Predict the structure.
Amino acid sequence: MSDFSIVQFNIQIGDDLTHNVKPLLHEIKHGLDKLVETGQTSIIDLRSIPLAPGEEDKILSMLGQGEVQAQLNALGLSEVTETQYAGVWIVTHYNDENHIISRFIEVTTMPEILCSQTEDIMAAYSRLTVSLEDNV
Amino acid sequence: MSEIEFLNWVRGPGFQIAIIIFVAGVIIRFAEILLLGRKPNLAEAKGSEMSSGLRTIITRSIPDKGTFQRSMFTVVAGYIFHLGLFITIFLFAPHILMFKDIFGFGWPSLPTPVVDAMAIVTIIALFAVLIHRMRNTVLKFISTKEDYIVWLVTILPLITGYIAFHRIGMTAPTLLAIHILSVELLLIMFPFTKLMHTFTIVMSRWYGGAISGYRGVKS
Amino acid sequence: MTNNSNKEKTLGEVMRSRGVSRRSFLKFCAATASMMAMSPAMIPKIAHALESARRPSVIWLSFQECTGCTESLTRAHTATIESLIFDSISLDYHHTLQAASGHAAEEAREAAMNENWGKYILVVDGSIPTDNPGYSTIAGISNLDMFMQTAAGAAAIISVGTCAAYGGIPHADPNPTGAYSVYDVIKKFSNNQLDGISSATLAKAGEGSVVSKPIISVPGCPPIPVVITGVLTHFLTFGTIPELDHLGRPKAFYGQSIHDRCYRRPFYDKGLFAETFDDEGAKKGWCLYKLGCKGPTTYNACATTKWNDGTSFPIESGHPCLGCSEPDFWDGGGFYKALSMPTENITQTAIYTAAGAAAVGVALGAMNKSKKNNAVAAHNKTTIDDLEK
């Protein structure tokens, strides 16, 4: 056994093992239609769908990269990217150890998590007020 | 009893009990038939018993033109469900594993969707022969309670197997346990009903042919 | 252990006081929804509920167990998000994790019980021996007594791990300690079938109060960490117990079998199986049914939630599912025996039966033959004389 090697699972990207990839992409298409027609946004949790090794990468590579890429630093890293299809966003949350804790596909004009939150704005207002009082 | 306990019981002690009754029953039935013996035939043999017997095993398995035209339905439906039973029992991968565990060897299986389709065809054919039996005056007259019981214990494993495979209505362990239990019922009923024809058919067809062969007549 | 002064604050207040931004909180809620297998549409609801949730007291009792469940749980406790869940509960007693020991630890438990009587969550891992109270004791108190006392004041009981949920390995044949699951012990208790329990405990627990406690089972050997935290979070978020199946398991995680959600399922359907662990089929990642996979009869979330931070799950690593989240998985006739195989040695049974039956058959045959011969011998031929009578 000189050529001992790690077993390579011979699953190709084109295998479409679970038959979940195409329906998911169609769901995104319907989501875009709904967004234009009624303004309703939709979110798909990628963790809730059984996917074979490689299938998530296949979905991500098909959606591709768009114009916007944002990084958040909130309880660990989060990445928000618009795909090549405007209105389709990938939101990936990481924990402190850079493990993915959740990944969503959001069909929206702007993912909620990117917006400044009212509570934070209020806290910012009082913080700024305090700091101005202290320094001026 | 939890569902897994139920499943473990039918896969263990339950199956053991069924196998004991099945094997003992079949062997005792055979011993009874074979040891009864026949009176020696003092007439001079006018032909070969063996070749006529063997030929009859084959010829009786193929319906002649007259029989086929007279009872086309019985022949066709009969062939379909027997073939279907053979495929679903012996060519389904999980079943072959069971045989392999007992006999020590296995054989290739058919793709699951083929067996799945065959199960449906077999169930339909079995219902068709039942309806035929109940609607045909002569058949109805000569049918006994045993005929209906045999029909029931034959179709139960098919139906429970189909439901277990597609997991309809209940959880998987319960459905699988019910399926195995229905097979155990079949195994227990087997030696004491006309289901014994599975084993005796070759012997009795040979015997019918052998008598004719001895007398030198066509069988 | 956590700081008691935080107990009266809501979770939202605790988080804000630690400088957790609303945006971070939203991220936490999104991760929580994903973890609890909830629709993303639930995220605003979760945010609202968690904002005003109060920190419940949790008492964790470990009985006949291997600490694997705690090991699993602490693996969920790797980073900020999960630790927030733990910061949001008040884990008042866990004899593996707490610093205190002996009487001090038991006093902490009693204090937490008295302070939160009727409101705390009781988490149990390990099965409870019922044969001899001395088989397993903590601080001189038998497992059964401690369980009954603590269960009496609990708002709900969470059975973590297969041992607490079904009896698990201690309950496996021949069950030398008379080990039972939380559910079975309570059922036996209500039927007065227990001898080992002291009269003081009986008086304190009061029959009806323990019997009516909601029990949530989180089986698995060990359970998936996020399933444990998911159930706690559900309770924290909504103050109710999640929807349960017939074995008391949360449907969100145990609603579908491993087989149903397995990415290798298409191979099963096509009849493509690995026959051994190193053949072509195994290398190609084909179905492991023939190698004894219990996926078809096992309900758990491994296939989607996965293990080790979502890296993989047993089948993805090339090993069949053992069925560890089902009752009596230890007594299923062997991990490598396919589900369709009998669990006993049927070949031997058949051979012995055949030998015995052959003897009986010969005897019966001989009896039948002599019966026939007797009948022939007894048969008198009619003669002319008979006719003339």
In short: Confidence is low (pLDDT under 50) at residues 1-14 of chain A.
